[in-house]
TrEMBL record:
This is Uncharacterized protein. InterPro entries: WD40/YVTN_repeat-like_dom_sf (IPR015943), WD40_PAC1 (IPR020472), WD40_repeat_CS (IPR019775), WD40_repeat_dom_sf (IPR036322), WD40_rpt (IPR001680). CDD domains: WD40. SMART domains: WD40 (SM00320). WD repeats lie at residues 1-38, 39-82, 83-126, 160-186, 187-230, 231-282.
Length: 325
């Protein structure tokens, strides 16, 4: 059985791509559930696979234990480009929330974070400071009042206050200024390596959500530089955390920004209310024999009726991608 480490949805809501430890990137049609593309030129585990927003989702970007980042053209079914600057395996990639996703961050076991310009295919910055391999990364969210969002200048981006956060095998979360590459904040508290970090949106934009190999979920306030909450309950490593678009009330879902969810190798997805440190609100069990939850996301999928629904999707340790809703 193969583990699905990551997946992404195309902008039109019709396609999903996935990366797996079978060394492949695969593309699936959501309505037919059929695989329509297979990219198999990586020679090691594919840790991340995402549609490129800068290429209008006609291109997939993937990272691998083979130390490369590859770009794949879906329509032409070819490899477009390879980035090969990292000195060790690459654990994660993320596109910028600004400039239409023109910038890409990658994190690696070589303890570095790299910022790339995918228009020019150049490495722009290297962020150094972590004392262990870096596993996860996230960009700060798009600023609503950013008048310079369309200016293709990384200095202007930095001047607008954009940051990235990273989680590492050194058990820390670090916040970095994109323009200067300087480290702004170190969060310490997790007892084992970080597996997932996320910025909040809107009123939660200054709150970092993290999940760790220590089986805990934590919230951190960038303004006070402090941990503000901890959630315990998982029985194994937490691989993925997300802010949920839903609140759960009597087993019914309503829109809210106060709910977070987590996926773990204990084969459960758990929902938590950030307004309370109490036990989880709701638990979804993964499929039997799924070998844990390795990734999860809330995706807006296009259905045959031409309407969009928000679905919870997760990838499991048996090679399957599941869509709930």
């Amino acid at each position: 059985m193969f583990v699905v480490f990551d997946y992404s949805i195309s902008n039109n809501g019709y396609l999903i791509c996935s990366g797996s430890d079978d060394n492949t990137v695969r593309v699936w049609d959501i309505n037919t559930n059929k695989q329509i593309r297979l990219f198999d030129e990586h020679v090691h585990v594919v840790t991340c696979a995402k549609f490129s927003p800068y290429h209008y989702h006609n291109v997939i970007c993937s990272s691998s234990y083979d130390k490369t980042i590859c770009f794949w053209d879906i329509k032409q079914n070819i490899q477009l480009r390879i980035f090969e600057k990292h000195k060790s395996w690459i654990s994660n990639i993320e596109f910028s929330s600004f400039n239409s996703g023109r910038y890409l961050c990658s994190v690696s076991d070589d303890k570095t974070i790299r910022l790339w310009d995918i228009k020019t295919y150049k490495s722009l910055h290297i962020f150094n400071g972590h004392e262990g391999g870096v596993w996860c990364i996230d960009f700060s969210p798009l600023q609503n009042n950013n008048n310079n969002n369309k200016i293709n200048n990384i200095g202007i981006i930095g001047g607008n206050g954009y940051t990235i956060c990273s989680g590492s095998f050194d058990n820390t979360i670090r916040i970095w200024d994109i323009e200067t590459t300087k480290q702004l904040i170190i969060f310490k508290g997790h007892k084992d390596c970080l597996r997932s970090v996320k910025y909040g949106l809107n009123e939660l934009r200054n709150i970092i959500l993290s999940g760790s190999q220590d089986k805990s979920i934590r919230l951190w306030d960038i303004r006070s530089n402090k941990q503000i909450q901890i959630f315990n309950g998982h029985k194994n490593i937490i691989y993925t955390v997300e802010y949920s678009p839903f609140i759960i009330n009597n087993n019914k879902f309503n829109c809210s920004s106060n709910i977070i969810c987590s996926g773990s190798l204990d084969n459960t997805i758990r929902f938590w209310d950030i307004r309370s440190n109490k036990n989880e609100l709701y638990i979804i069990n993964g499929d039997q024999g799924g070998n844990g939850i390795h990734c999860l996301k809330f995706l807006q999928l296009q259905k045959k009726e031409n309407n969009f629904d928000i679905n919870l999707c997760y990838g499991s340790g048996n090679g399957n991608v599941h869509i709930l809703g």
